[in-house]
Amino acid sequence: MESVLRVEKLHKRFGEVVALHSIDFELKKGEIHGLVGANGSGKSTFMNILFGSQNIRESGGYGGKIFIDEKEVEIVDSRSSMREGIGMVHQELSLIGELSVSSNIKLNRENIVGGTERFKQFAIVDEAGNRKEASAVLSKVGVEIDTGAKAKNYSTNLKQFIEIARELDNEKLKVLILDEPTSSLNVEETNLLLDHLRQIASEGISIIFISHRLDEVTDICDRVTVLRDGVLISQYTRDEYDIKRIALDMIGKEVVQTAKTSGRRSENGILKFDRVSINSGDRNHEDISLEVREGEVLGITGLAGHGQEIFGYGIMGLYNLEGSVLFEGKRVYPGKDAFQKGIYLLPDERKELGLLIEQSVSENMVFGSHVRRKEFLKHPSLGPLSGFNQKTIDSYVDSMIESLNIKTKSRSQTVRELSGGNQQKVCIARAISVKPKLLFVGEPTRGIDIYSKEIILKMLLKLNSEENTTVVISSGEVSELKRVCDRIAIMYENRVFEIFEGDFESEAFALAMSGRRVD
Ligand SMILES: Nc1ncnc2c1ncn2[C@@H]1O[C@H](COP(=O)(O)OP(=O)(O)OP(=O)(O)O)[C@@H](O)[C@H]1O
């Protein structure tokens, strides 16, 4: 097969951190090529170079050569990258919510009503033509929606498909880079996307597929390249690779799966939502009840968009909650009151709600934790005004960096400079630092590599067994929940459909995921 993209000795340095060491890589026409590696191994850096991202330019550019169709090209910005036929869909989606789906897809490629294009400022956009073409390109990824509706009206999952369609609309497209395209999709949506990607590749477009889900990588990719600490470690074809081998190359050691062993859970309820209503902005969940038991690890799952996150978001005041909630037998009010009583939420939308992006790893990790960790204060009896005990904080932060395997230069590095997965780990560290009585955590392992996933699950279990923190995990990763939870609540159409206790492999459990019961 002919080569579409080739890089020679690609090199990137951020100050003293070498993010990519002299990478040689080739992508063939119509190939789906998996790019895998632990958090911080250099995957995004590699793709950001190919896509001419601003952060590469601002940090001194890159070294090495890039060839498209065997012709050397210089990629200075995303425009030059698009001109060469490279398209990318990032983990953080970038649609303009107020614009219609068709305007997003056709942005800078609009059809103009015949004759008006000659008078630039009076050119009339051919909305009907745009909508027709947008619908046609969306059908390439199996989606049929109203393309005249605003993008913000669609779920994150659909936006993912719309972004891919936007790239496919570029008729020059040769290379499509997808960074974790399935991380927020459920099983059906993932399968749908993978099927369409196979079809797109068979029509001659080459795909670079970045994912931490190795089962998907081995399902769909013709070849796989493994990066570790910015070095290209190995490259396999379909008949050479298997998940175990790839994982070993990524991490350098075998990954042992975590499972819950013992716990101190009781039958007593610690947090009780009694026929409350929770409004998430676009959905109203009415008359819903849930009792969380003291000391348990409770999983909340269901198909995406069915409301797994509402209890945590509601009690912390991010969604509007009305009705009675009791915590340790007493009325608790959303927001500050809940926090002061010992409830903490680590939301799934970390970037928007969790991280202080311009502050250091250390500041992020201990933010808000002095309330329950008096050892972080200089004079605990005098409260925060007495100042912080920096020595204790520093050694605590260093120990968290080590146990969570966070790739950072030091505790004072700005969080913005960390890779996506390492930023997530900082959030997890903060939730653990707060030592809450009850922790709500959303999608704790999204975007995290296979090794670090296990560390995070282990730490949540440790918090539960050693600090007696009740943990509520809302997640679409059902197999992880099955390993670590005492009970799993399944949400369906905005309410709790069923709560399972230990019988997670039953037919009833599988059916409940799609709102059905055993006859
Ligand atoms: N703007 C920056 N300034 C300083 N260092 C950076 C910057 N961007 C990335 N790095 C460093 O480069 C290395 C590679 O990061 P990169 O984001 O490419 O990893 P990744 O493989 O995509 O990780 P993840 O799976 O977590 O997304 C990391 O050590 C990261 O801290």
Automatic annotation (TrEMBL):
SUPFAM superfamilies: P-loop containing nucleoside triphosphate hydrolases (SSF52540). SMART domains: AAA (SM00382). CDD domains: ABC_Carb_Monos_I (cd03216), ABC_Carb_Monos_II (cd03215). InterPro entries: AAA+_ATPase, ABC_carbohydrate_import_ATPase, ABC_transporter-like_ATP-bd, ABC_transporter-like_CS, P-loop_NTPase. Its EC number is 3.6.3.17. Keywords: ATP-binding, Hydrolase, Nucleotide-binding. GO terms for molecular function: ATP binding; ATP hydrolysis activity. Residues 5-254, 270-518 form the ABC transporter domain. PANTHER family: CARBOHYDRATE TRANSPORT ATP-BINDING PROTEIN MG119-RELATED (PTHR43790), GUANOSINE IMPORT ATP-BINDING PROTEIN NUPO (PTHR43790:SF4). This is Xylose import ATP-binding protein XylG. It comes from Andreesenia angusta.
